Amino acid sequence: MVCSIVVSGVTVRFESSVVLDGVIFSVNRGEVLGVLGPNGSGKTTLLRSIARAINPTSGEILVFGRPAWDYTEEEYSKVVSAMLPNWPGGFSMKTYEIVLMGCRNRSRNFWWEEEEELEVAKEALQLLGALDLFERDFDKLSSGEQRKVLIAKSLAQRTNIILLDEPVAYLDIKHKLEVMNVLRTLAELGKTVVVSLHELELASGYCDKLLVLNRGKIVAAGEPRSVISEDLLREVYGVEAEVKWDGDHNYPLIIPKTKKIPKEEIVCLR
Ligand SMILES: Nc1ncnc2c1ncn2[C@@H]1O[C@H](COP(=O)(O)OP(=O)(O)OP(=O)(O)O)[C@@H](O)[C@H]1O
Ligand SMILES: [Mg+2]
After folding, report:
1. How far is CA 228 from CA 21, 234, 235, in A?
2. What is the best residue among 16, 20, 23, 43 to mutate for testing ligand 1's pocket, by most ligand atoms within 8 Å of CB?
3. Residue ranges of the ABC transporter domain (predicted)?
4. Cβ of 39 less than 6 Å from ligand 1
């Protein structure tokens, strides 16, 4: 079986700093891969590389067996969609217009397709519990509402590979679960999902496999129960915590050992 994505030896350098360092992994059809790692570890850079927003310094990315950069832009937009949330603000658009941009990323817009595209946009928003935002001004939405709309835009592109950079940031627990449930079902329908997350429990509970980056290198990869551990929290995140697994679901209970900051350490901010 041809893997959906094969990342082999990808290195990204920005000036003198190596941000991704020889990253190797693959993702199969129907899988949800969670990309974890501390701030600045390279998660967004990895997703941007697969989305072709940046061209890696070295290494290769194969998408359905073909080098990512061999696809034309139009071909690629039919295969890979990406939610990389640095939406340029400053211009006014309705929510549905943003979601429709997802539809139009994959096909030229003809007037007779408009009705079908509106149905696609509505379904994407509906799945994310955001249909009530349909006619709202995007720039007046809350951060969480904006995030849901950008996810809907990505889903509306209807690609086989979906990349999402921190899709559940800003979302309340109900909507975090809703997004992850939608991604799981899309994976069951045969799509391949790569999602970066800071929510370790959620990543563990919903992803088939996890990949952990630290300073641009993969430091752990595999099934959630083999990846999320007290050692990982200590060595990668610098956090002392107890990790408990209970029942047959994959949600760990992560109990941090609280570390108070002594009052004497706060000098100027008093
Ligand atoms: N265009 C750029 N030029 C220079 N350095 C960059 C550029 N883009 C990212 N970096 C640096 O690369 C490193 C990795 O950034 P990246 O955004 O991939 O991290 P991340 O894992 O997504 O972090 P976070 O969890 O905070 O989103 C950071 O140190 C960042 O400052
Ligand atoms: Mg990031």
Report:
1. 22, 11, 11
2. 43
3. 5-240
4. yes
